[in-house]
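User: I'm curious whether this sequence folds into something compact or stays loose and floppy. Could you predict its structure so I can see for myself?
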Amino acid sequence: MTAALGSMPRLAAGTLAALLSDYTFRTVALGAAIIGLMSGVVGCFSVLRREALLADGASHAALPGVVAAYLITGSKDAAVLLAGAAASAVLAAAATVLTARRTRIKFESALAVAMSVFFGLGLALMSYAQRLPGASKAGLARFIYGEASSIVMRDVCASAALALMLTALVCVFFRQFKLAAFDPEYAASAGLRSGAAGGALTAMTVAVTVLGIQAVGAVLMSALLIAPAVAARQWTRSLAGMTALAAVFGAVSGVAGTAYSSLRDGVPTGPAIVVTASVIAGVSLLAAPGRGIAAKLVRRRRLRRRVLAANVSAPEGFDRTPPDASTTTEQSARPAAPPDGEGSPNAPQNERIIPAAPPDGEKHAAASAPDEDGKGGGSDAGGA
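Assistant: Here's the prediction. I'll summarize afterward.
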């Protein structure tokens, strides 16, 4: 048993060396890491703007553009097909945003309609294209579920160039993007063009989504865009830290998913990358020290113990009974009111105390009693 445990690091090192020596693995892993990095950076702003489903709509809307580009040009080149996907995704995103701004239809409803219409149109066009001679070898189906093994060094270079451009845009216009994500009304009142910043963020989301379709697929690309941002949100409270951490999580998901897919037969690379990103997000939601579910439960338990200890050690005269649901904390901390009487605010302050009147017999006896001069004090004596 000890020998087996000691041989595990050597086996892991040998497996890692074998993977790194493979040219196909290095190419696919590098491309997946770049796509994950860009997805993490752009996904932060999509999550904060509450437009996380925009990537889902753009990825589904890209399918008719792929098929239309093949039907028009007859080319199987990935660059041509991705150009058609970008045109279709931009058209769907613009239709969604304009519908939400110019009508009373909400953003989610407009996105659902656009995604359904474009994806249905893409499936209809693909069904037609599959019946054409030579279309079965065009590789159109890989854009639905993804095929990371089709990534070549030219795709990696194009992804790297796009990643550098997006990173530069985020660094230069970080303040505008931050205001557009958190408070667009204040940005407009301050004279900043929040509409242009929002449009730029939408265009960046569509670009990253279209670029990642080849590796992850139209169905799962939105998960890769959202999961690293959600995971990073749990570990930091600053937007800069969240963006950097989401980029790291996305890159790690791309490399780890590609490695797991290479080591396991029959496991596709795209779903493996998305599952890795989802696992990182789940662990962050559960175990993050600041915002995690476990940390919140611990803080809630400590607060309950503190409240119970404060109730036990309360001075005499304080109400120790737990407040009702309708009683506020301030009311429960207020000391109990003393009974009406001495020291009570309800007791009369300047009222004269009048003794009780004696009975009638005692009253007559007191009236007939002589005073100091020996004369009767009452009117009866005077009358006598």
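Summary: The radius of gyration is 39 Å. The chain has a mean pLDDT of 76.
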